[in-house]
Write a structure and sequence with these properties.
Order of helices and strands of chain B: HHHHEEHHH
Strand content of chain A: 5-15%
Number of helices of chain B: 7
Structural class of chain B: mainly alpha
Structural class of chain A: alpha/beta
Oligomer: heterodimer
Number of helices of chain A: 11
Strand order of the largest sheet of chain A: 3-2-1-4-5-6
CATH architecture of the largest domain in chain A: 3-Layer(aba) Sandwich
Distance between the termini of chain A: 24 Å
Shape of chain A: elongated
Number of strands of chain B: 2
Number of strands of chain A: 6
CATH class of the largest domain in chain A: Alpha Beta
Largest sheet of chain A: 6 strands, parallel
């Protein structure tokens, strides 16, 4: 609350936070309504995932673990759509699953929607195995025997009868694996209990909050690529040439980042000026 | 447009606006949406877990395929429930011992291998690559993560941060300088983490606003417009009612 006798710096430091909310809201809304189309540069970490999928021969097995729930949908859903479109376009055998029980329905909807759009058939071109309890134990179990970890797919069809799983007995038969994780179990568990043990190539996708923690794995080559947050999804959409919700959100992202940088600088200026005034 | 899509759009828009109403101030509409979120999430998880675990992984294989061996993990799991019977609570220790023992046995070697040994190797290996059969080489490109300059920066960062958390020696003299360097690296790391967190939160806001814009279309019946008006109206009425009621002095 502003009081009489307050200096400008004091007033600014005690500004009603709802004014800041409104400002951020407008910085997000206006670029969404009137997009500018700022350029999106592709980073080497996103290109790592794209290049590996691009290098896979037709019919290779691609495993996508959708390890998130609707709470992380804005960031990871566009990543999953872009990855599935790329894999289907390359005619890979796509196996999808989730380690998050709360994301099961959303993952099924996602896979079905993209497969329908790309004209792919369930059981022949792709499968959604659903959720199995155990987290890291499921990964170990899949490394030993995929059919015992998932006796049936999400629709209840026995996995041994699925044409797409012919010749796939365990994780060792997977050509490439990507985990899109919003927490635990996610990318780290897939590396520790999957790739490190059963030696298949893997990449990762994660929310922005998690990205700094996964960069050490990327630098050491433990994962060969990383799609971080909505920005990573936008880069991937650009690479496959199918712009979606992530690219549409990039102008808004840039505008809000600029607004926050300006607010941080102003806040510091007012703070130091107030400290100087008080001696 | 299918009816379920229209109903879904109205529900999603309504709940988003109720949650956003917290930005104005804490109010019963926000609380309603918050409690619905928690309730629906828990309900969904319970139903999915029951269907997948109890029905598909336990009952069906035992009844239809005669997989009697599954009764062993079921029995271990049931021991956990003895916690609720004081006289038999000691039995749950066997189940916990099994879980803790198995979890630790699985996790410790793999975690040490993946997060300690591999990371130590990655910190040292690039430094060793400076000396080869051609003599000493050194690349200075800061933008290339594999350059020798970056390898040295990472080595200094790792060593100084580890020293900062080493409390058996007093941080004075050279030690103070090293510890301060560690703090500097930690602050850069926190800054990067904060930056990514801001990006993530803004992405969530973008996601919701994108949906609200999509649902303002006539094909959905413009739920964004109507429900925004309704939410603002409800907030106005709640604020008026709050002013009219005498303050609670107890």
């Amino acid at each position: 609350m502003w009081m009489a006798g307050m200096t400008f710096s004091e007033k600014m430091l005690k500004i009603d936070r709802r004014i800041i909310f409104l400002m951020i809201g407008l910085c997000t809304l206006l670029p969404l309504l009137y997009p500018v189309g700022l350029p999106i540069k592709t980073s080497s970490e996103v290109r790592g995932v794209y290049d590996h999928i691009e290098s896979l021969p037709e019919g290779s097995v691609f495993l996508l673990s959708i390890d998130f729930d609707p709470a992380s949908k804005p960031e990871l859903y566009p990543q999953a759509i872009a990855l599935l479109r790329h894999a289907f376009k390359k005619n890979l055998h796509v196996i999808t699953m989730t380690l998050w029980v709360s994301g099961t329905g959303m993952a099924d909807q996602l896979v079905t929607q993209v497969a329908k759009e790309m004209g792919k058939e369930n059981g022949t071109d792709y499968t959604f195995l659903g959720w199995s309890p155990g987290g890291q134990a499921v990964i170990i179990n899949m490394g030993q025997d995929l059919y015992s970890a998932y006796p049936s797919d999400y629709r209840g069809k026995p996995t041994k009868e699925l044409p797409i799983l012919e010749g796939v007995r365990s994780l060792k038969d997977v050509g490439y694996m990507v985990s899109l994780g919003a927490g635990r179990p996610g990318v780290e568990e897939w590396y520790v209990f999957g790739k490190d043990k059963y030696k298949f190539e893997m990449g990762g996708g994660c929310t922005g909050v998690m990205a700094p923690g996964l960069y050490p794995l990327l630098r050491s080559g433990q994962i060969n690529g990383l799609i971080g947050g909505l920005r990573g999804a936008a880069e991937y959409e650009n690479l496959i040439g199918q712009k979606g919700k992530a690219v549409a959100g990039m102008d808004a992202q840039s505008a809000t980042h600029l607004a926050i940088i300006a607010l941080v600088i102003m806040c510091n200026l007012f703070y130091f000026s107030l400290r100087q005034q008080k001696g | 447009m299918p009816l379920e899509m229209i109903v879904g759009a109205w529900v999603a828009t309504g709940l988003t606006l109720l949650i956003f109403s917290f930005l104005y101030k804490d109010n019963p509409l926000f609380k309603l949406a918050e409690h619905l979120y928690v309730g629906v999430s828990v309900g969904y998880v319970i139903v999915k877990t029951y269907d997948t675990v109890i029905v598909h992984l336990v009952v069906k294989p035992i009844v239809e395929n005669g997989e009697i061996a599954l009764l062993i993990p079921v029995a271990i799991g049931m021991l956990m429930l003895t916690r609720y019977v004081p006289k038999a609570a000691w039995m749950s220790r066997y189940a916990f011992a099994f879980i803790v023992g198995m979890g630790a046995g699985l996790a410790i070697p793999r975690t040490v291998s993946s997060f300690i040994l591999k990371q130590v190797e990655d910190t040292i290996r690039p430094l060793l690559s400076m000396t080869g059969s051609d003599g000493v080489t050194f690349s200075m490109n800061l933008l290339n993560p594999a350059s020798h300059l970056n390898a040295i920066i990472i080595f200094i960062g790792v060593s100084s941060v580890l020293f900062y958390f080493f409390f058996s020696i007093e941080h004075s003299g050279v030690g103070k300088a090293v510890a301060r360097t560690g703090i500097l690296f930690l602050m850069i790391s926190f800054g990067a983490g904060f930056g990514y967190t801001v990006m993530a939160r803004m992405s969530l806001l973008i996601g919701r606003l994108t949906d609200l814009i999509e649902f303002s279309d006539t094909s959905y019946g413009r739920p964004t417009v109507w429900l925004s008006l309704l939410t603002v109206g409800a907030l106005f009425l709640l604020a008026r009612r709050g002013r009219e009621q005498p303050p609670d002095i107890h």
